[in-house]
Request: fold
Amino acid sequence: MMKTTESESGSRALAAGGTALAGTLMVVEGLLSGLQGIAAIAKDDVYAVVGKYAYKFNITAWGWIHLVVGVLVLVAGFAVFTGSVLARTVGVVLAVLAVVANFLYLPYQPFWSIIMIGLGFFVIWSLFHDIGPERV
Reply:
């Protein structure tokens, strides 16, 4: 039987805290993204377009994109609480997808998109911190 040192148990506690934080942030990000999508679907003229943009979709299409991504991130956020490596990996992939979607959405809601991108990067960092080589 291996004996754990104090630094190993502290590292495991930090990893568990990182996983809980990432899961919580994913649930929040999924809810906010879903609400953003619903707002765009319900009222097509809610968001203003700033200039011309290469990735131009109508607001309803962006609403559906945000709603679907939000639901997926929300479900993955709950799955992250299980501590599964697969759930954390899927969480990273979906967080990257959410960051890309918000980056492409910058012309419509620049301030909000930057907040969501920052939240996504923090989720990715938290999940990668937990998947580190010493934990696999």
In short: The CA atoms of residues 36 and 66 lie 7 Å apart.
